[in-house]
């Protein structure tokens, strides 16, 4: 480890011993910059298409510091990446050295990972390539928040679309009368009819348990605006032409099939946080679902959602130069490689657990869960390693979000393994970040809610007059 800002974690994940927590390196970098007595201040502002603007500030090493240019850019690029995927935005204002601005501009034009961010976040979500603007005065902060869901009157259907299964629930006046989980494989299906038919099948199954259908609410991985799909990993196998012609308006087409029924679809992370806020009767909640990918959502202190993306699957959580690579963005150290089924699959070899290479990730997870039920220490080490990394990630999240409650759910957290993840995350906070360990409260839904809580919460989305 030649990194001058490397800080050995006090708790090392057993199966991932070279894990370099983002939060530790960022803090060490800031401390080093301030210790010079000549640190420079860098102000950042991200602007969204609706005019929302979010600020963030950090410090840089002085120009005379050895390798200051390289280290400053590395830290700022990783921080901006977190802000882009957590907050969202297409225009980045920089109040800092002109050289930093030019490096960022070049990064989003030339670097494969920078171009990915510019295409997905900038063009596909906000309709503009990422812009980097040098300024001596950041635009004023402006944000939009809104209440979400919490409507229970009438006969409702809620669905939750994941990468390995789709869940559906039938709800009458707030009481779940039916829930079901069906395995599917949407990621690399080239024909969007597969997705349409799958969702319709689940809706019809739920409708069979209701006297009528008054409203339908959906939760799905990706970014959705007014029920239109902006970008979603569920459709990564669909060509761009078919995405534009068949996928963008897929949920509007589904709504047409249910004539006159209110139909709302939102990001699954927001529904995660909503489920937590409703079940716990608290606000200031960060919800994290560890499933096929990593979904997250945030309910602020007023109980509202924000216009933030909260796509923590893509945020950098491991700063080592040879960290695991995200299969979609091509970037290293992203959250999805640590808090999802992909994390379980990645840790099989160091754990000494053999599975056929061609075995799908959901089946590998089931195998590990079965070993855990038989008290297999190899399986336990997988969950322990995920939990340690998660503890450091929570501390990282706390530098960008204000929250007092953490809800943890998703298929990876089912069974005793979920308890181990929480136990290790708490341990990290108590040892490394005692102020967080004392303040934050973890919440784990019961087994049924872990698997179906988001579908039930999604049922509360539409307003029924």
Account of the protein in words:
With 465 residues, the chain is α/β, with parallel strands linked by helices. The protein has three domains: 36-143, no CATH class; 146-270, ATPase, nucleotide binding domain (Nucleotidyltransferase, domain 5), CATH 3.30.420.40; 276-456, Nucleotidyltransferase, domain 5 (2-Layer Sandwich). It contains 14 helices and 17 strands. A five-stranded mixed β-sheet has the order 8-7-6-9-12. Strands 2-1-3-4 form a four-stranded mixed β-sheet. Strands 14-13-16-17 form a four-stranded mixed β-sheet, with helices on both faces. α3 (98-110) packs across α4 (112-126). The longest helix is centred in the C-terminal third of the chain and has 21 residues, at 377-397.
């Amino acid at each position: 480890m030649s990194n001058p800002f490397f800080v050995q974690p006090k708790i090392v994940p057993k199966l991932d011993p070279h894990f370099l927590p983002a939060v530790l390196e960022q803090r060490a970098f800031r401390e080093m910059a301030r210790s010079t007595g000549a640190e420079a201040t860098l102000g950042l502002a991200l602007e969204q298409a609706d005019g929302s603007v979010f600020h963030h500030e950090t410090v840089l090493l002085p120009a005379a510091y050895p390798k200051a240019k390289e280290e400053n850019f590395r830290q700022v690029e990783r921080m901006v990446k977190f802000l882009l995927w957590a907050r969202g935005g297409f225009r980045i204002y920089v109040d800092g050295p002109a050289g930093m601005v030019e490096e960022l501009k070049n990064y989003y034009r030339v670097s494969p990972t920078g171009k990915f961010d510019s295409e997905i976040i900038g063009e596909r979500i906000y309709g503009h390539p990422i812009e980097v603007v040098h300024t001596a005065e950041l635009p004023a902060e402006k944000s939009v928040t809104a209440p979400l869901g919490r409507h229970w009157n009438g006969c409702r259907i809620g669905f939750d679309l994941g990468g390995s299964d789709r869940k559906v629930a039938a709800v009458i006046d707030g009481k779940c009368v039916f829930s079901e989980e069906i395995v599917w494989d949407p990621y690399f299906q080239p024909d969007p009819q597969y997705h349409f038919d799958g969702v319709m099948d689940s809706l019809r199954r739920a409708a069979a348990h209701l006297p009528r259908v008054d409203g339908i609410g959906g939760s799905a991985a990706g970014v959705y605006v007014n029920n239109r799909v902006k970008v979603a990993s569920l459709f990564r196998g669909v060509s761009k032409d078919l995405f534009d012609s068949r996928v963008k308006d897929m949920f509007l087409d589904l709504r047409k099939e249910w004539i006159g029924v209110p139909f709302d679809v939102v990001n699954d992370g927001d529904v995660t946080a909503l489920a937590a806020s409703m079940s716990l009767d608290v606000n200031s909640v960060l919800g994290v679902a560890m499933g096929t990918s990593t979904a997250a959502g945030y309910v602020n202190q007023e109980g509202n959602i924000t216009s933030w993306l909260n796509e923590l699957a893509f945020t950098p959580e491991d700063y080592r130069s040879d960290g695991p690579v995200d299969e979609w963005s091509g970037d290293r150290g992203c959250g999805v490689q640590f808090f999802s089924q992909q994390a379980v699959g990645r840790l099989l070899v160091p754990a000494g657990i053999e599975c056929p290479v061609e075995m799908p990730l959901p089946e590998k997870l089931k195998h590990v869960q079965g070993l855990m039920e038989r008290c297999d220490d190899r399986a336990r080490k997988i969950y322990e390693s995920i939990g340690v990394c998660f503890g450091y990630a929570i501390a990282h999240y706390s530098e960008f979000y204000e929250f007092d409650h953490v809800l943890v759910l998703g298929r990876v957290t089912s069974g005793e393994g979920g308890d181990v993840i929480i136990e290790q995350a708490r341990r990290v906070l108590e040892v490394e970040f005692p102020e967080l360990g004392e303040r934050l409260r973890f919440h784990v839904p019961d087994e049924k809610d872990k698997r179906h809580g988001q579908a039930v919460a999604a049922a509360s989305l539409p307003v029924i007059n």
